[in-house]
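Please think about what follows:
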Amino acid sequence: MTTASRVLVLNSGSSSVKYQLLDMADSTRLAVGLVERIGEETSRLAHEPLTGPGAGGGKRERLGAIADHEAALRTVAAELAADGLGLDSPELAAVGHRVVHGGTRFTQPTVIDDEVLAEIRSLIPLAPLHNPANVTGIEVARALRADIPQVAVFDTAFHSTMPEYVARYAIDAATADKYAIRRYGFHGTSHAYVSRATAALLGRPSEDVNVIVLHLGNGASASAVRGGVCVETSMGLTPLEGLVMGTRSGDLDPAVVFHLARVGGFSVDEIDSLLNKKSGLLGLCGDNDMREVLRRAGEGEESARLAFAAYVHRLKKYIGAYSAVLGRVDAVAFTAGVGENAHQVREAAVEGLAELGLVLDPEANAVRSSQPRLVSPDSARVAVAVVPTDEELEIATQAYALVTR
């Protein structure tokens, strides 16, 4: 059992690496940063030490070509070392990696060995945009610190507790099994963290609390969590299903795909691009930033008002559906960029749902804060909460718990 307490959290994208170094002795952040535009001449590293010699000086930027993920992580290591937080420190207990897709095999945080890495690679067809970059980050980190545990924490894991009748699509079972077609769900680390934090905000153990979590960012998802266990979520085989999102359509009739192919002559790739990158708020009004949608809607632009109405209507549908799934709802929690900051979205989503026990305190709802808080009156039957998500802390917590068992 290790006495080291630091965990480096890596979120490797196709051309970026987000990272945080945390000390799990008291769950404090020691440094945060981002490397973006990897592989380009205009690569950028933004690093902020929160402890050590550089603390208090704000972000440091490094501009210039960073060829690949190995170069990116070596640059990160150099920045951390300059702050006395180097990756060679004996205080480093583990590296925690966000991995988007764990399929049905990975339902818990997992120490990565060659076999696990091969299985993560085998899941690339289910997450072709994300898992390859996750694998690259793991490979580089293993090369840099082969002597410490590398832990994969999967976006899909929290949703693996959904009953089979929820996870299954009603298609031919043999075909579904052959091609691993089922509902997996995503944003799992956020839903896990926020559901627990909401219970804590209510002063109750998570095992006693039923929560609807609304993770509303550019990507958006809902979950129904009964006693700390996910029983339903809005995303499915991919992150395309469910809510109206920034650029994704969310739910639609599958025959739209056939219609576009047969009548419009669209290729599979063109349909994929349309539904994932050119739909949602962007498709409806030309903006995927909720701040711009709200500004334009406030100025009376019809397309923006339509986009906002469609977004809110889908939210209401899921709140109502998940209220039925849970039977008893103790809280609805809003999180992520839109959920935490757009009070107009929270107000509109809850409006008219008093019969479900949902009402807001307008003054509390209008307050901006980085702290978890209730925005419903004390008399409300169902609490409405705003809970800032912390996926990096959740990954670090899970990774550290695994390596210190």
User: Anything to note?
Assistant: The mean pLDDT is 93. The first strand starts at residue 6 and ends at 12.
